[in-house]
Write the structure tokens for this entry.
Amino acid sequence: MYKILIIDDNAANVKQTMYLLHKNDFAIGYILEPKYAIERLLYEEFQLILLDVYMPEIDGVSLLKQIKAHEELKDIPVIMLTHDTDEDLLSKCLIAGAVDFINKPLNEKVLMARINTVIASREYIAEIKKQSEKIKKSESLITKLYSQILKDLDKARKTQYSLVSLEFPNFSSFALNSLYKPIDKVGGDFICFEHVGEDRVDCFFGDVSGHGISSAMVSCMAILAFKTAFAKKLYPKEALSFIHELLFPVVHNHFIVGAYFTYFPKKQLLQYSYAGSPLLLLRKNQIHTLEGDGTGLLMFSEVRLQEYSIQLNSGERVLLYSDGLIEVFNEKQEMYSYERFEESALKNVNHKGKVFLERILDDTLIFSNHNIKDDMAMLLLEVG
């Protein structure tokens, strides 16, 4: 409940003000002797002060200055109460730190309107401070990674490769394989996974806009955010939202397209969420794009995501790929295109694991005469 302190030497005025505030469900305290105001404010918390201008011993403006000069009290908003309409006096009140003033005798509608305006303003400021603290925490986490990567390009490469999932454990009922080919020493594509034995496997596959060091830094941040999301046991849609909210305040001029899936091997159940990048299902020698859509991360403050699920069968595969494998050109300036990519996947369907991915990559490189202009990555889930 919002708690308001009335400081006024006139008992009748205090009684009237208390009646109006009680009527509108505010908690109230009052002081008839202003010399005790500072002491009262230090041991009891109030969110707003209604302060009379004319009082004996100390006038309202002087007391206002004392309140605003005190480190522990300076942020409490103060509304001045006065019969006086002298503009110089009102100006002094505002200069001294008052947020508003109200003429006596008090009008209930005016009083409530002014108080509610102050409350709304305080709540807005509190929310801004809260968001600022979240941003500071995010910046603190991310800055450590920034400073590490910027020291040396080779260290950046080693750091990124240590985070990107290129090797996977041997699972009994399924297999994971990946392929990662950055255009520079470091790149913006990333692949990461975590697992709980063979009960649950989470994978986050993404492509940061651009390439090179700046994209690599964002990809590393995304991987660290993924690990935190997994530790929180979030599911695909929740995980992508968490990653977006963590990185959006500190990442500028980059965005991420990708996909997140959680696989439950015992049920052969795949749950997934799109962040602008498709999942392909290889089923009975046909390729299907799994249903769903969703916006990329870090493009806008609000992200639109959905969660989907599909029952997989033994022998089926789920393939994720970055657009670097599609958007390459031959000497005639023809783009490789998704159709050729699909033909390559079907042509090499008899190969398994990393060999399957390498054959697809070879077809892309041959078409473009190895003239690639973007990072390339693939992730393959094979159901046993």
User: Anything to note?
Assistant: The first helix runs from residue 11 to 23. Residues 6 and 30 are 4 Å apart (CA to CA). The chain has a mean pLDDT of 88.
